């Protein structure tokens, strides 16, 4: 398993920088203690979602009779859709609906829904983690994938803690540029997933 590639892929997919505008909007009415609690919960929940997908995702696919090759094709198409939206600097609309955002404004806690799911770790993240988990051959590679999830959680924590300064320093234009670069990375990954999945299905 290519550790750096997995880390960069998941970081681009989760894209905590792209979540900053919605995070600031959702926490605008919260006090400092509530904001800190929201950040802590979102970071931990992000790591947990990645770990659960890595450890139990393939088992769930077997229960529903879905092959990894089919997931690669379907997941690749989903990633390409997300990448296209990100390249047009529209990550929020790609990962959460206006109805979810409206419902979130009435919640006392928005850390898990919609901040972690689906804004940070949506179906694209889960399918990608499952695909990478299937490529592991040793227990320590699976442990490394879970560790990568924990590191991603730390990155989410740092990014959200610095959301205000980052937003002021980078501005909307800077955030859009970062989102477009991550979208380009995801587009390339999506093509790879689809190509591998199609080849596998064609060989059956």
Automatic annotation (TrEMBL):
It comes from Parazoarcus communis SWub3 = DSM 12120. Keywords: Cell membrane, Membrane, Transmembrane, Transmembrane helix. It is a multi-pass membrane protein. PANTHER family: UPF0056 MEMBRANE PROTEIN YHCE. InterPro entries: Multi_antbiot-R_MarC. The chain crosses the membrane at residues 6-26, 38-57, 63-87, 108-133, 139-160, 181-202. One of its GO terms (cellular component) is plasma membrane. Belongs to the UPF0056 (MarC) family. It is found in: Cell membrane. The lineage of its organism: Bacteria, Pseudomonadati, Pseudomonadota, Betaproteobacteria, Rhodocyclales. It holds the Pfam family MarC. The keyword Glycoprotein does not apply. This is UPF0056 membrane protein.
């Amino acid at each position: 398993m290519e550790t750096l590639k997995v880390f960069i892929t998941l970081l681009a997919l989760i894209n905590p920088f792209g979540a900053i505008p919605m995070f600031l909007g959702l926490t605008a009415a919260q006090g400092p203690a509530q904001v800190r609690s929201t950040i802590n919960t979102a970071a931990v929940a992000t790591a947990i979602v990645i770990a659960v997908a890595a450890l139990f995702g393939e088992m769930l696919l077997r229960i529903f009779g879905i092959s990894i090759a089919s997931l690669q094709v379907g997941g690749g198409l989903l990633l390409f859709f997300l990448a296209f939206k990100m390249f047009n600097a529209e990550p929020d609309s790609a990962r959460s609906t206006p109805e979810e955002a409206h419902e979130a404004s009435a919640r006392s806690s928005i850390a898990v829904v919609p901040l972690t799911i689906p804004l940070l770790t949506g179906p694209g993240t889960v399918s990608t983690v499952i695909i990478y988990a299937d490529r592991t051959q040793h227990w320590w590679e699976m442990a490394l994938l879970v560790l990568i999830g924990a590191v991603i959680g730390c990155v989410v924590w740092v990014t959200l803690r610095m959301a205000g300064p980052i937003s002021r320093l980078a501005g909307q234009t800077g955030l859009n540029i970062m989102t477009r670069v991550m979208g380009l990375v995801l587009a390339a990954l999506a093509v790879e997933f689809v190509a591998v999945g199609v080849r596998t299905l064609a060989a059956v």
